[in-house]
Amino acid sequence: MKKLIKFYDILLILAVTIFFQSCTKTVDLIAHNGNIYTVDENFSKASAFAVENGKFIDVGSDDILSKYKSDNIINLNGSTVLPGLIDAHCHFYGLGLNQSVIDLTGTKSFSEIIDKISNDDKKSVIRGRGWDQNDWTIKKFPNKTKLDLLYPETPIILERIDGHAYLVNQKALDVAKIDVNTKSKNGTVVIENGKLTGVLIDGPMSLIDKAFGNISNQEKIDALLSAQDICFKHGLTTVDDAGLSKEVILLIDSLQKKNKLKMRVYAMISNSTEDVNYFLDKGPIKTSLLNVRSVKVYGDGALGSRGATLKEPYSDDKHNYGKLVTDIQSVKELAKRLSNENFQMNTHAIGDSTINILLNEYSKVLENKKDPRWRIEHSQIVDLNDINGYSKKILPSVQPTHATSDMYWAEDRVGPKRIKGAYAYKDLLERSKVIGLGTDFPVEKVNPFHTFYAATARKDLDNYPEGGFEFSNALSREETLKGMTIWAAYLNFEENEKGSIEKNKFADFIVIDRDLMNVDLDLTPNTKVLKTYLSGDLVYSNTNSN
Predict the structure, then answer these.
(1) DSSP of 70-82, one letter per residue?
(2) Confidence class for position 528, pLDDT limits 50, 70, 90
(3) b vs e for 452-489, b when ≥16 Cβ sit within 10 Å of the residue's Cβ?
(4) How far apart are CA 166 and CA 524, in angstroms?
């Protein structure tokens, strides 16, 4: 009798086991045994999650293994997992285009630029990008004289690192029909002793672009795909491209629909009449990969080229206040129009004068708007009296590596008083409660872990300066990670679909080689991405990792 009972017990156990196995849900992917920072509301941690149809359906402990089954089970072996990173301000398409031009970043003299050009001088038009006179011993704008001597018949177009100045030779000027009589309300044709220097700041650059702007459709596609590869390698799953033409936005949409371009893109429309009219008439575009509901406006130029607009003159150029790229009346008219159409206005503003103008004009048109989330891109030199102008309606989008790149000369430009409101990320966060972090690549490197280090340590990659640059405005590690994920998603009106590892959000996540939140801070910029997943699909794997 006892043997019979024991036999029935075994049968019961088997039946129960089979029953529960049949009830176990089959999913597309299970990850377990991980150190997962969910970046949810409580900044909680998990060790496992399940993914189905491109979204997280469960996040929690390793008990998930008993609730689901899958043919794709990842043992993370204790590795750290973060939500897919978001670059809140970059130039994705521009990064791709840059892969086909001469890289001038890090050059220490104009002579070094000449050497780089000579190694790549077989093209009908020579293009380069990345020079910065602030890195040279003689910190003044270069002159085209030597370029004219060496390349009298080949147009040369060399873009400054910030994208706000060109150095071109006489041949390029001739093709673009630029001479000493060329005027510009929103920029400068630099002239010395009555002669063109070849330096064009902001507005006049468009004349060069029109003269040499023919890029084939295949070149555009190649640029987008090249940029995607670079971004996935660095753990980026969403990019906010700050200024795209209608043609490029529609090309991105087409490539995404064909599954050729997988990167999620928050596309800011370039502020040209044709492009703005097209999208305001059409209305926003929203897919799982593309979001078009904002306009990128250039308020002023860059600090490095003294094109940022200041309330008082530059400390190292007493007669120069900088110049607005978009005049005040145009800003007012566009702000009113966009507020009526429920489009977001995202304005490039470096100088304190420009920021003051935007705070005033934004506030007027947003007074009765409930949740507009208009952005001031860069928010770089802020008058301390204007900090309180930021709010839940007017949000800062900043690039921490700008602070650590500019710190060597920024105080020379603005003086010891104004520098206290420069790169003031903590102060801005206290007002707006969220802050979006990006790189402005290709102005800076794509690497988001350089962003993380610059925001938290306020140092460059050489650990300079000791104690950090204006360290009172450093962000905590948690604030920084939020700025690269959930807060960046919030700036894009996408916080309910991405930016954290939570149920029903896109399964965008990355696996990295160290615990970013606990490792020695000076080791964080060397973080490597081991794997990048988009909607649960592996889109990048470091072949040197296990």
Answers:
(1) -S-EEE-TT-EEE
(2) very high
(3) bbbbbbbbbeeeeeeebbbeebbbebebbbbbbbbbbb
(4) 35
How many structural domains does the chain have? 3
DSSP single-letter state for residue 314: B
348 and 383 in a single domain? The answer is yes
Alpha-carbon 25 to chain mean position: 38
The pTM of this model reads 0.89
Indicate whether 21 pLDDT > 80: no
232 and 191 in a common domain: no
**pLDDT at 20 (0 to 100):** 47
Rounded to an integer, what distance in angstroms lies between the CA atom of residue 362 and that of residue 192? 39
Element (H, E) at 236: strand 236-244
Q: Is residue 545 part of a domain?
A: no
Q: Are residues 175 and 219 in the same domain?
A: no
Per-residue pLDDT at 541:
98
The residue to which tokens 């003159």 are assigned: 313
Question: How far, in Å, CA of 31 to CA of 425, rounded?
Answer: 35
Q: Residue 8 has what pLDDT?
A: 59
Task: Determine the distance from the C-alpha atom of residue 484 to the mean position of all C-alpha atoms in its chain, rounded to a whole number.
Answer: 10
